[in-house]
Amino acid sequence: MKPSTVLIVDDSRVSRMLTRQHITVRHADWVIEEAANGNDALVIARDLQPDLVLLDVNMPGMNGVDAAAALREMLPNAHISLLTANVQAATRQRAEAIGVGFMEKPITAERIAQLIAPLEA
Amino acid sequence: MIRLSDLEHDALVELFNIGVGQAASAMSEIVSETVTMAVPAISFLNRAAAAKLLASKSTGSGRICGISQRYSGAFDTDAILMFPEEKSQEIVRLMVGQAMPLDELTAMEQEAMSEIGNILLNSCVGALANIIGHELHGSLPDYHVGYSQDILALSGDSETVVLMLHIEFVVERQQIAGDVAFIMDMSALQDLKQHVALYLARAFGGEQP
Amino acid sequence: MSRGAGSLPLLQLVLDCIGVGAIVLDAERRIVLWNRWMSQHSGVLGDETQDRNFFDLFPEQRDKRLDGAISQALRNNLPSLLSQTLNRWPLPLYASKSQAEQGERMHQALTVSPLNMDDGQRFCLIQVSDVSAAVQRENLLREQAMALRSQTLLDDLTGVANRRHFDMAIDREARRARRMGTPLSLMMLDIDFFKAYNDHYGHQQGDACLEAVASALSTMQQRPADLFARYGGEEFAVILPDTPAEAAVAMANAMCRKVHDLRIPHQASHSSERVVTISIGVASTDASHPGEAYDLINAADRALYQAKACGRNRVESA
Questions:
Q1: Domain span at residue C131?
Q2: Which residues of A touch B19 (CB under 8 A)?
Q3: What is the pLDDT of residue B75?
Q4: Residues of C in contact with B112 (CB under 8 A)
Q5: Is residue C207 located within the same domain as residue C245?
Q6: Using CA atoms, how far apart are residues C27 and B185, in angstroms rounded to an integer?
Q7: In this structure, which CATH number among 3.90.70.10, 3.40.50.300, 3.40.190.10, 3.40.50.2300 belongs to the domain A5-120?
Q8: What is the mean pLDDT of residues A94-118?
Q9: Total domains present in chain C
Q10: Are C64 and C92 part of one and the same domain?
């Protein structure tokens, strides 16, 4: 199976490290890049063309939802998912409208497993 | 003053963001409106400096509504959610949808603020307790009104440390800024730092708790 | 176990005597205690509840605040408060039989607390209080405060005279002017492109803009009988007794200039200058052209409309 490329977007370094770890434990050969905000994510994604993007919703500057929308336009075939502890209907609906996934925080091994499953298929 | 490493600091900020995110979820359920909450920054101060900081941020009368809960177990702390008095009125009005044309919060409105404090503080402390793997015992909320130094003087002494969370609360596109103070003594702060360090070691060291 | 204060039968009597509802759930959320107060006010007897899942009995509470609070207690050992204000009538409880028949639920405040037994088992205690009396007192308080407020003559936001004050004053001055044969002038003014301002900067800043404009203009009236009032949302009115048309127009022009010179930024303004401006309509009556209050208001309104049509940031007179 060809190794996938993942972009992790979160302003919390611990969060990024945790997500990275949960992925590399299962797929040591996957390429993982990180961005600390929405703007950087867009710049990196343009060259990287990731297969999977995981974004925190609550970031300073461009929030995760707006960044996800922009990424959806840029990468029509990528798997994109929002991560947040605030799981209310409005955010969920917005995610659906943009065409991105939605996953509850805190980040756990099981939740990351669910998010990378489409790439393993 | 005990200092946290960058990673420990980051872990705490992320933890509290998860906590207030869950609290926002719960509150939006109550008011059927979009509610978002975030903790953009945390800081460690002594009690006098904390009181000064709060006083410097106030724009209205300077009076603050504080909802406090006492926690003990893995570490001991008095946690206080604080909003300027006029902002507390705004919050209750937004959550309840009914205005009371008085300058002070009525008994029922105080109870509503107490519940908001209860939800938010339990969420923060709960998120912390879950991640560090130890339980805490908590009290029901108490409501206070006064100036910042009086509210913070509710517990501890001049040696106490305050872990201050700055909170941004958005309801119905109204943005309201508040603060949460965790008042602890040095040994409690040490316990907290140790627990966070252990959590990081477990999460990234692959060790068993 | 000794008899007396520590004995189980005595404690059961106490529980069935107290004036609050007490429910205890085990870790699986099954009901293990349901005191007499609960039976009396829910119509569900203790026997019927034994070992039943709480959410089978109250399915509409699933995933709501109470469910979350029970989880907080059982899983995290933390207590919760459910205020009456934010959680109206969570449980189907009634203060009396007649209220039950009418389907009028009791106003309730709940607390949920963890209980830790020595053997490590955890339970949670739900206490229910009837707060109907407190709610009634607050409703009365609100009505009285509202009544008191409506008797005032000042606008809440800006502190200038309110509409009620204006309505009384214009009537009074119009009658007086007719009686005495003196001139009476009225200005109607409003903030140009105010809706766009609100949409662009938000309502809080819109309020601040209203306050700033009112503050700047209300100090310009010279005489005690002159009245500057908030007529509506972004509309103000100025009553000038004993003032002929020319003087009123001169003052209106000064007011227009003053607001313009405040230079309050208005990025969403359709005018080229992008600052907050006002338009003013002036109407007057005098001995030769007497009029009723409503004639004067209509004329000033038409003049205001004219000022808008002619490009705003100006004064027109009837």
A1: 8-145
A2: 85
A3: 81
A4: 83, 85-86
A5: yes
A6: 34
A7: 3.40.50.2300
A8: 92
A9: 2
A10: yes
Q: Packing angle between helix B107-132 and helix C65-76, nearest 10 degrees?
A: 40
B-chain residue closest to C156, CA distance: B101
For chain B, domain boundaries: 6-205
Which residues of C are marked as active site? 234
Query: DSSP strand E in chain C: where?
Result: 21-25, 31-34, 80-82, 108-116, 122-130, 184-191, 227-230, 235-241, 278-285, 315-317
pTM: 0.75
Measured distance CA(B83)–CA(B196) in Å, rounded: 28
- The type of residue at C169 is A
pLDDT tens-place string over residues A23-52 = 999 999 999 999 999 999 999 999 999 999
Task: Please tell me the CATH code under which domain B6-205 is placed.
Answer: 3.40.1550.10
Low-confidence ranges of chain C (pLDDT < 50): 1
Q: How confident is the model at residue B131 (pLDDT cuts 50, 70, 90)?
A: confident
| Whether pLDDT at B207 is above 50 | no
Tally of CA atoms within 13 A in the half-sphere of C170 that contains its CB = 29
Which residues of chain A are within 8 Å of residue B37 when distances are taken between CB atoms? Answer: 86
DSSP reduced 3-state for B144: strand
Higher-confidence residue of C246 and B207: namely C246
pLDDT of residue C193: 94
Q: Which of B93, B95, B122 to mutate to test the interface with C (most CBs of C within 10 A)?
A: B122
Strands of chain B (E only): list them. 35-46, 64-73, 77-84, 136-138, 142-146, 161-171, 174-184
Is A106 close to B37, i.e. CB distance below 8 A?
no
The ipTM is: 0.89
**Are C80 and B119 a contacting pair at CB < 8 A?**
yes
Confidence of residue B209 (pLDDT cuts 50, 70, 90): very low
Same domain, yes or no: C118 and C74 = yes
* C-alpha–C-alpha distance, residues B167 and B16, integer Å: 10
Count CA within 13 A, CB hemisphere, residue C136: 5
Looking at the fold, whether C171 and C249 belong to one and the same domain comes out as yes
CATH code for the domain of C79 = 3.30.450.20
